[in-house]
């Protein structure tokens, strides 16, 4: 709590045009005592604080500069979140006070764990990691209260693994992640931890699955951005993100080997062509359509949906890709071009195709 007693005594005294000597005379103290109060070198005793408040026609709260906090759960939670985001260490004490007042609130327990975990990570102090682990275990019991869709068992277990790692308990962290690796959620972390522990061969399947999962997420994300830019009429941004993504996917295909990534890239090149066409760059649009046609024909001649056709993937289990793009790569290109319902652009494609 910040107290503004010193500056308030000085402010009230000057407002009444009194010298320190005159105020001292009123209170029956020495001028030196008033000077120390205003300089923050000492604090008047409670009786004198009450006399000062009475003399200045102010409440003791106002004289002290005390402002009562709103300690309702919602407001307390907001303060703790602010401390977490601003990296304010005062949040640690605030959290402990909140835990005493709301010991059975999932939100308070979880954000307090996050505060201790974050400061433990940055400071290297194990007591924060230990406290975070205790609170995370409590938050699992209180999880039915949770209403935040971004928080669930997996996020809690992931945070618990972080706490174990901060405590130097890498094996516990690893086992926890393996036990709760639903849908490959922790594959990248498990793979990384295994490589740090000289478990290279064991790490490869996890890293391979993580790569496939992230590529799939990338494809969906780019389609989302593409829809946004197309709906806005921002065709330049649509071209930029497609050029970036097609480069990434092309870099992941094994040389001289047909790959499912080629089938994904075909409609991307068709979309890029439409974006270039809409910005007035007809030559670039034709070149992109030629790329879409060439890649589609090559893939359809020898379709390959095996995940091992992706570079860096060394997965011992067979994995295959499925999509709603069409039975063939060429069908996916045709579907995308038809969806734009632009006669001139369709005519450009027809000329290139024939």
What can you tell me about this protein's structure?
The chain folds into 3 domains: 5-64, lambda repressor-like DNA-binding domains (434 Repressor (Amino-terminal Domain)), CATH 1.10.260.40; 73-180, Serine Threonine Protein Phosphatase 5, Tetratricopeptide repeat (Alpha Horseshoe); 202-353, Serine Threonine Protein Phosphatase 5, Tetratricopeptide repeat. The mean pLDDT is 90. With 354 residues, it is an all-alpha fold. It has 18 helices and no strands.
Which shape, going by the Cα principal axes?
A: elongated
Sheet bearing the most strands, described? none
Radius of gyration: 33 Å
How many domains make up the 3D coordinates?
A: 3
Helix-strand pattern: HHHHHHHHHHHHHHHHHH
Number of strands: 0
Unreliable spans: none
CATH class of the largest domain: Mainly Alpha
State the secondary-structure class. mainly alpha
What's the end-to-end separation, in Å?
Answer: 78 Å
CATH topology-level fold name of the largest domain? Serine Threonine Protein Phosphatase 5, Tetratricopeptide repeat
Strand content: under 5%
Mean pLDDT across all residues, rounded?
90
Which percent bin holds the helix content? over 70%
Tally the helices: what do you get? Answer: 18
Oligomer: single chain
CATH architecture label name of the largest domain? Alpha Horseshoe
